[in-house]
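User: Show me a protein chain along with its predicted structure.
Assistant: Here is one chain, sequence first, then structure tokens.
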Amino acid sequence: MADKRGPKVLKVRPGVGGGTSRSIQRRLADARFATRYFVGRGLDIGGGSDPLALYFELFPRMTDIDIWDREQGDGQTLDGVADESYDFLYSSHCLEHLVDPLDALRNWLRVVRPGGHLVVVVPDEDLYEQGYWPSRFNPDHKHSFTTYKPDSWSPVSINLLETLTKLGPGAQILSVATIDAGYRHKLTGIDQTLTPVAESSIEFILRKQAAAAE
């Protein structure tokens, strides 16, 4: 019998896969993605033609996943999405395209149920932009990101550790990690994400906490 779970229509981009596709082997090696993070009904912000839904059967506790891209509206505000309507939220390389990343994260947290997770991936400014702004490889990037450093060469750099703490006690920070699997640090001047294996990102995982009783 056909599996009725998950999305029915997917768009696939030919050629080298996007950030989600490059991350799949890494995620399969970490059981927490299949047993804890990608569980229940999910929302994929910026999924486009490289959505997590392409790998639906690899995460058996995922019951359904919706894709939110340009056609659905503003990924920063998620207008029309009810509070606490998803068990998890996933976004790969979308946050850097939004005008106000902190406002976006607050809205992303809003639509996740207490106990649910946010798994978000952004470019690492040193690995991806490599000291140049505006970005040579994606001129639509509105921000660059670093885990944390006192000073940055980028005029629009966002320190993630500082930013995530602004979400308050409702967002438990589980991890903030540099993801450079397959990245060749001596190979500069090219967008290594155009190769089939390289990641040049920061991934952070949040767990939404239940609201404190008044």
